[in-house]
Amino acid sequence: MSEIVLKTNKLTKQYRDIRAIDNLSFTIRKGTTFGLLGPNGSGKTTTLGILLSVINQTSGSFTWFEEGNSNKQRKRIGAILEGPHFYENFTAYKNLKLISKIKGVGDNQIERVLKEVDLYNRKDDKFKTYSLGMKQRLAIASALLSDPEVLILDEPTNGLDPQGIADIRELIIKIASTGKTVILASHLLDEVEKVCNEYLVLKEGKLIHKGKVDQDVTNSLVIELASPDMIKLETVIKSNPYFISLKHNKNFFEVKFDGNTDFTLVANFLFENKIIISHFLVLKKNLETQFLEILEQNV
Ligand SMILES: Nc1ncnc2c1ncn2[C@@H]1O[C@H](COP(=O)(O)OP(=O)(O)OP(=O)(O)O)[C@@H](O)[C@H]1O
Ligand SMILES: [Mg+2]
Questions:
Q1: FRET label pair with 109: which of 35, 211, 215, 292, CA 20 to 30 Å apart?
Q2: Cα-to-centroid distance, 44 and ligand 2 (Å)
Q3: What pLDDT is stored for residue 266 in this prediction?
């Protein structure tokens, strides 16, 4: 059992007539990259705000590092919630120097974080000359200055172009690989799928699903199949050791297999059994289909 970094117990936030979050209980273990996934207005930022003590919860409680939630624990957490405010006319280096003074962190950390986010060779350029993606990387650098054990990011790729998005995601994965725990709020399914290993789904403030990304993504494989000889195809496919179920569609079968097989193994199996295939389409069961199923079950 690994150490527990965060435990929340029935966290609830009520704004006048809106229940922004409702009875949230979850646990995050050390080293996890944890996604808070949910559509706009589902309570992600409110949750992070409470965890950082920027917002007071209406009821419920939470504990960092199995200790508490005072300043002592918050010093072990780096976060970008509202985004740090950088001076346009200062260089990246000078901006970080200012923040490190405020945080009481030594100057020697500045070079380290600039290298970590791949901005070291641009450190003497003014902030205003940075691209959006570079600004976001600098924000992450500032959150890393104190070498926190936990990094909290709220929608870190908002507004970036595809390359900027890919860079930030790669950076988050790299940071996570150093053993830090990452908590990331996002409304983007593929972001959570690519970056996180555990996640929960929020809908109108309620926790409607908790899961592990790899399990939810790979627990089954669905393939559309057709052959000139559909009867033989059905008999053969049902003898496949990973076969789970078969649905008759108009022109093809929709066949579900255990996620321990993959499409090349299925293709080989059909070939070995001398089945002629006229249609073969892998329907990847990804977090997106999973997410839609979950949302449908909770209307
Ligand atoms: N200060 C506030 N006063 C009143 N209602 C608020 C306040 N802050 C948030 N809310 C409401 O709480 C709900 C959750 O908002 P929150 O910002 O946490 O959602 P979110 O999941 O972060 O959304 P987004 O994806 O748009 O960032 C929304 O209905 C929002 O309108
Ligand atoms: Mg938000």
A1: 35
A2: 5
A3: 94
DSSP 229: -
Q: What is the DSSP string of 50-118?
A: HHTTSS--SEEEEEETTTBSSHHHHTTEEEESS-----TTSBHHHHHHHHHHHHT--THHHHHHHHHTT
Does any ligand 1 atom lie closer than 6 A to the CB of residue 49? no
Distance between Cα 206 and ligand 1 center (Å): 13
Would the CB of 41 count as within 6 Å of ligand 1?
Answer: yes
- Give the pLDDT confidence of 38-54 residue by residue, as tens digits: 989 999 999 999 999 99
Residues 142 and 224 in one domain: no
Residues 37 and 68 in one domain: yes
Pocket flag, ligand 1, residue 43 (CB < 6 Å): yes
Containing structural domain, residue 249: 219-297
What's the distance, CA 36 to chain centroid?
7
Q: How far is the CA of 185 from the centre of ligand 2 (A)?
A: 7
Tell me, yes or no, whether 24 and 85 share the same domain.
yes
**Which residue type sits at 97?**
K
- pLDDT < 70 regions, the chain: 1, 83, 217-219, 284-299
| Sign (positive or negative) of CA dihedral 261, 264, 270, 274 | negative
- Determine the pLDDT at residue 246: 93
Number of domains in the chain: 2
**Which residue owns the Cα nearest ligand 1 atom 28?**
41
d(CA 211, CA 219): 12
CA distance 109 to 96: 9
Residue 56 Cβ contacting ligand 1 at under 6 Å:
no
Query: Using one digit for the tens of pLDDT, what is the confidence trace for 103-158?
Result: 899 999 999 999 999 999 999 999 999 999 999 999 999 999 999 999 999 999 99
